[in-house]
Design goal:
This protein is elongated. Helices cover 72% and strands 0% of the residues. The chain has one domain. It contains 4 helices and no strands. By secondary structure, the chain is mostly helical.
Length: 80
């Protein structure tokens, strides 16, 4: 089921943007949002890498198409 109600942040953004907006402003707003979510994603990825102890050898194994030992071990450990 789809929730059709806006949260407080969405309502605030709609009110803020309740005016004519140029194409350039639309591009700038989209760029701001992409930058914001990009930063959050990169921060989460860095946290996960540290938390799981993933290192360059694990990334190299992924590049070669093999299973990195730490990622496999952590996945199995969390399923028990």
């Amino acid at each position: 089921m789809v929730n059709n109600q806006f949260n407080d942040v969405q309502i605030s953004l709609l009110r803020l943007l309740d005016r004519p907006i140029t194409e350039q402003e639309v591009i700038e707003i989209k760029d701001l949002l992409v930058s914001y979510f990009d930063k959050k994603l990169k921060t989460q990825i860095e946290f996960d890498i540290i938390e799981k102890g993933i290192n360059e050898a694990d990334f190299e194994a992924l590049r070669k198409g093999t299973k990195p030992s730490k990622i496999v071990r952590n996945r199995h450990a969390s399923s028990h």
